[in-house]
Amino acid sequence: MNPAKRRGVVFAILAAAFYALNSPLSKLLLQSIPPTMMAAFLYLGAGLGMAVLQAIQQKKGTVKEQKLTRKELPYTLGMIFLDIAAPIFLMLGITRTSAASASLLNNFEIVATSLIALLIFKEAISKKLWLGIFLVTLSSIILSLQDAEGLSFSAGSLFVLAACVCWGFENNCTRMLSSKNPVQIVVIKGIFSGLGSLIVSMLLGESFPGVWPLLLALLLGFVAYGLSIVFYIYAQRELGAAKTSAYYAIAPFIGAALSLVIFTEIPSLYFLIALVIMIAGTWVVTIADQA
Q1: In angstroms, rounded to a whole number, what is the distance separating the alpha carbons of residues 23 and 106?
Q2: Which residue in 38, 20, 17 sits closest to 29, CA to CA?
Q3: CB 218 within 8 A of CB 43
């Protein structure tokens, strides 16, 4: 493997590992921070942290990226509004379901992104990808069942799935900006989406947490959203979209494993069945992407 490819693999694995911290650590911080405000701090942490990085790059004169223009304004606004809704839904979901289930359910983003690309952007979907979509959807349904006998769905899981649908739309907006400066994209996404969530939080009457929970939420946002997104974009440039997705697909499984350890949760039979199906679905999607 040449140095560029090896660097791309490292970037992709780091992106996955950093994002995997999101669900379990957010679950811990949600004990001290209200859900909507938590979403705000996560994105503000990403935006502010990347703004500092951008300032350092500009001072050193190392920025050789294309800037966003008015032509991309509709997609930029769509990205911002969807990134206000998605993390709020996710935080609401995490407060109502286990962190391990929330981590695995994040893979439904694959389904949402693919179907939106088909219906709106008229992208073709292969038979293998349809199979992968079916398996991931089936696993998500099993994870969402609160009472298998009564077929009642967990409200927390439904919130996580709503977040995935928002991120599915957001992914299709962001792909229209992929040739632009990734750090600038994260700065805009983080600061404006974070401020939007903060306004919503204040309108809901949520109270501010203490200094330490706030700082920890900002740090988690910088790592799980900021650095993760930047490393993901850099990995795409070295490996291409398909191989990067293959490595990044491990993120939900890392998050689920961390959640089981941190919260000493004993996985149920339904969780284990859903886990096996989700692994199969993710593997099929990865193979389909590289076909």
Answers
A1: 9
A2: 38
A3: no
The first and second tokens of residue 283, run together, are 């593997």
Is residue 6 within 8 Å of 242, Cβ to Cβ? no
d(CA 216, CA 218): 5
Non-local (6+) Cβ contacts of 179 within 8 A are 66
Asked if residue 195 lies in contact with residue 142, where contact means CB atoms within 8 angstroms, the answer is no
Which residues on adjacent β-strands are paired with residue 147?
Answer: 152
Could you read off the pLDDT of 125-162 as tens digits, one per residue?
788 888 888 998 999 888 887 555 444 568 899 999 99
**82 is written with which tokens?**
């969807």
Query: Where are the alpha helices (H) located in the chain, listed in sequence order?
Result: 3-20, 22-29, 35-60, 73-96, 99-105, 108-119, 127-144, 155-174, 182-203, 211-221, 228-239, 241-248, 251-262, 269-290
- Specify whether the CB–CB gap between 272 and 281 falls below 8 A: no
φ/ψ of residue 66, rounded to 5: -80, 140
- Cα 15 from Cα 247, distance rounded (Å): 9
Q: Tens digits of per-residue pLDDT, 83-115? A: 999 999 999 999 998 889 999 998 888 788 888
Strand (E) or helix (H) holding 145: strand 145-147
Q: Which residues contact 120 (CB under 8 A, 6 or more apart)?
A: 172
Question: Can you read off the two tokens belonging to residue 135?
Answer: 């398996």
Angstrom distance (rounded) from CA 82 to CA 142? 26
Alpha-carbon gap, residue 171 to 244, rounded angstroms: 15
- Please choose, from the candidates 47, 252, 229, the residue with its C-alpha nearest in 3D space to the C-alpha of residue 140: 252
Measured distance CA(24)–CA(22) in Å, rounded = 6
pTM of the full structure: 0.85
- Give the separation between CA 9 and CA 285, rounded to whole angstroms: 19
Gap between the Cα atoms of 256 and 160, Å rounded: 14
Specify the residue for token string 């859903």. Answer: 274
